[in-house]
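Recap from last week: sequence in, structure out.
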Amino acid sequence: MSPMRLIILVGAAAAAIAAAFLVRGLTQPRTVMQTVTEQQTLVQTKEVSETNVLVARRDLVVGELLSPDDFEWAPWPENNVVAGYQTEEDNADAISELSGSVVRISIYAEEPILPQKLVKKGETGFMAALLTPGMRAISVEISTESASGGFILPDDRVDVILTYQAQVAMAEAVIERPVTETILKNVRVLAIDQVFYQGESEAASQIGNTATLEVKPEEAELIAHAQRLGTISLSLRPWADARDTGSRGARTDLLQGGNSPGNSVTIYRNGQASAGLGGS
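Predicted structure tokens:
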């Protein structure tokens, strides 16, 4: 073989080998090295000390008489406890002590209980806080016989009955005879003597000398006038009547002298009473 052919063959072989390596390099996957810097956020947690604070279990409106079910203990940050808050650590009996109080300023659910917003039993202004807005409190003398045997308790509902002497014109003469009529219906009893609230552990009856009733301003005048006319008795009503918003049946005509003793004469004909006539 001539030297020229040998050189050509060697060159072709070298070119073939180079081409093979080139094709192999192109077909293999390439690994790309990339450096990624991740930003890390460090969250620091701080432990907060808590204590149990007395709060309202529900919204409490002005004038409500509170029971143990109206309170509850709730966790509260110690750094946010201010003067006046009731804590379980300092006063574990706070719920029983505040039960029977009356709301002076509205309190919202889960709001801490402050003493300035309540009126405790026996404190000045307790009866005024117990009254429904627009109503009045008036006391009447009672006895066991005139108050359903002592079974009328605070927050009960009663009818007010007046018994007095009226002049009756009979066939031959004018005589006096007792007349009894209901002058007011469905009245709330605020207190019997100085007892405002009856707990479950107390007696089932309360015998006193006076009953304090919650009435409208004109009804207070009626009761005051009726006590001068005769004897007041209280008739106990069922609890179901507490939400009765019907007529109170107030006999306000007694304030103008209608059918009151000394101001009228009731005439009976054939056993039936006729309209009263003006008297002296």
